[in-house]
C-alpha cells in the first residue's frame, strides 16, 4: 500500500490543517498580548477574552459533529478558514483607523473560536472521504501529530515574530495563514458531495452515541477527566500569563516572546521523544507520569515572582511544554485505538466538548480570582487544579499498564503497518 505522503488529496488536507492549526495557536497568544499592551486590559477583561476564544467548544462542539456530517465537508473547512481570516483582518484595520476596542476583540475571539470548532471537527470527518478505509488510522495519526506540533510551533513562532513585528501586524500574518489553508483545501480533487439524507438519524441520537461511548469507557473517561481538569487550570494560567509577565514581573514584550520560543523548543523535544518515552516507560504509564510532570512544571510559573524571574519562567515553560506534548501525543494515540473507526468523528467531537469546554470556564475563573485574590495567588490556585488533574489517571489501571491490551484495541483487526 502506498504512503499517504504520495496521496495528493491527503497532502492538501494535511497542509491545510497544519497551517490552520498554527494560525489558531498564534491567535491564542497574539490577542492577549494586544489586549494587555495596547488596550490595558484588566485581569477580569483578560479572563473574558480567554473565555470567548474557547467558548464555542462548550456551546457548539457536540452538535457541530453531527452538523458537519450533514454538510459538504470541504465547503465547511474553506468557509471556516475564510471567516477566521476576515475576522482577524478587521483587527489591524481597526488599529490603523485608531478604532480598536476590547469589544471588537471579544467579537473577533468569539467568531474565530466558533469557526475553529467547525474546522477541527470537519477535517477529521473529511479524512474518510479522501483516503482508503485501511489508511484512516494512519491518516488520523498524521493529522493528530501535526496538530500537536502546531500547538508547540504556534506560540514559539509568535514569540519570534514579536521581536520584529508589533502585535497588530502579527495579526495580519495570522489572518494570512487561514487564507493559505483555504487555498490548499481548494486543490483537493475528490468531489465534495452532499451526504445522503436517508442515512441521517435524529441529531440528538447521533450526539448521544458519541458522548455515551466516551463517558462509558473506563479508560477514556479517566483520560478525559484528567485533560479537562488540566485545561481548566491551564486556562486560568493562560488568562493571566501575559499580564503577569509584563506587569507583575516587569518583563518586556520581547522577553515574553523569548519565553514562548523556549517553550516551543521544549514542546518540540517532547514531540520527537514522546514515542521513545512511551517505549521506555510504557505507553499506559506515560499518561499518568506526564500528567504529574506538567503539574509540577506549572508551579514554576508563580515561583518566578520570588526572584530570577526570566530564567525561572523559561525553565518552567520549557518543562511544561515538554510534559504536555508527551501527554497529548500518548493519550491521543491511546484514544484513537480505543475507539471504533465508525465513531471517531463523534468521539472526537464529544472529547472536544468535555476537555475544551473547561477552557472558557477556566478563563473566566482566572479573571474573577485574579481580580479578587490577585494574580500570583490565582496562579497558585491554577497549579493546585492541575495537580488534581493527575488523580483520575494515577488512580487507574493505566499506572500498571505498559501497553494497550489487545482486547481494548478497536483497531486490532487493522494491519499494524497502517496505524498512525
UniProtKB/TrEMBL annotation:
GO terms for molecular function: transmembrane transporter activity. It is a multi-pass membrane protein. Keywords: Cell membrane, Membrane, Transmembrane, Transmembrane helix. GO terms for cellular component: plasma membrane. It is found in: Cell membrane. Coiled coil: none annotated. It holds the Pfam family MFS_1. CDD domains: MFS_MefA_like (cd06173). The chain crosses the membrane at residues 46-68, 74-97, 165-186, 223-246, 258-277, 289-308, 314-332, 353-373, 379-398. This is Predicted arabinose efflux permease, MFS family. It comes from Klenkia soli. The lineage of its organism: Bacteria, Bacillati, Actinomycetota, Actinomycetes, Geodermatophilales.
Amino acid at each position: 500500500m502506498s504512503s499517504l505522503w504520495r496521496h495528493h488529496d491527503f497532502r492538501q488536507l494535511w497542509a491545510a490543517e497544519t497551517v490552520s492549526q498554527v494560525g489558531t495557536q498564534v491567535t491564542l497568544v497574539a490577542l492577549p498580548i494586544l489586549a494587555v499592551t495596547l488596550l490595558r486590559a484588566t485581569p477580569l477583561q483578560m479572563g473574558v477574552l480567554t473565555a470567548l476564544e474557547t467558548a464555542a467548544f462548550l456551546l457548539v462542539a457536540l452538535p457541530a459533529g453531527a452538523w458537519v456530517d450533514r454538510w459538504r465537508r470541504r465547503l465547511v473547512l474553506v468557509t471556516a478558514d475564510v471567516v477566521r481570516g476576515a475576522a482577524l483582518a478587521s483587527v489591524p484595520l481597526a488599529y490603523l483607523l485608531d478604532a480598536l476596542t476590547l469589544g471588537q476583540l471579544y467579537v473577533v475571539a468569539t467568531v474565530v473560536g466558533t469557526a475553529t470548532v467547525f474546522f477541527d471537527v470537519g477535517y477529521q470527518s473529511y479524512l474518510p472521504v479522501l483516503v482508503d478505509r485501511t489508511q484512516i488510522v494512519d491518516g488520523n495519526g498524521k493529522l493528530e501529530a501535526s496538530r500537536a506540533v502546531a500547538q508547540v510551533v504556534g506560540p514559539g513562532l509568535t514569540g519570534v515574530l514579536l521581536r520584529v513585528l508589533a502585535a497588530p501586524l502579527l495579526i495580519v500574518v495570522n489572518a494570512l495563514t487561514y487564507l493559505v489553508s483555504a487555498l490548499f483545501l481548494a486543490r483537493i480533487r475528490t468531489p465534495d458531495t452532499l451526504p445522503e439524507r436517508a442515512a441521517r438519524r435524529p441529531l440528538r441520537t447521533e450526539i448521544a452515541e458519541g458522548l455515551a461511548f466516551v463517558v462509558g469507557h473506563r479508560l477514556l473517561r479517566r483520560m478525559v477527566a484528567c485533560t479537562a481538569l488540566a485545561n481548566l487550570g491551564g486556562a486560568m494560567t493562560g488568562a493571566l500569563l501575559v499580564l503577569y509577565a509584563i506587569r507583575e514581573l516587569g518583563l518586556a514584550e520581547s522577553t515574553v516572546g523569548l519565553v514562548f520560543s523556549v517553550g516551543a523548543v521544549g514542546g518540540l523535544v517532547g514531540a520527537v521523544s514522546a514515542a521513545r518515552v512511551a517505549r521506555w516507560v510504557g505507553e499506559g504509564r506515560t499518561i499518568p507520569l506526564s500528567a504529574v510532570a506538567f503539574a509540577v512544571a506549572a508551579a514554576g510559573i508563580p515561583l518566578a515572582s520570588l526572584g530570577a524571574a526570566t530564567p525561572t519562567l523559561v525553565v518552567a515553560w520549557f518543562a511544561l511544554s515538554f510534559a504536555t506534548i508527551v501527554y497529548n501525543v500518548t493519550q491521543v494515540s491511546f484514544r484513537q485505538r480505543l475507539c471504533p473507526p465508525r465513531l471517531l468523528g463523534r468521539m472526537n467531537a464529544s472529547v472536544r466538548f468535555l476537555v475544551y469546554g473547561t477552557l472558557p470556564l477556566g478563563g473566566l475563573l482566572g479573571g474573577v480570582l485574579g481580580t479578587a485574590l490577585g494574580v500570583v495567588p490565582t496562579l497558585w490556585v491554577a497549579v493546585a487544579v492541575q495537580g488534581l488533574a493527575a488523580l483520575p489517571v494515577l488512580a487507574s489501571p493505566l499506572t500498571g499498564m505498559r501497553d494497550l491490551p489487545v482486547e481494548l484495541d478497536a483497531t486490532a483487526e487493522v494491519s499494524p503497518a497502517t496505524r498512525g
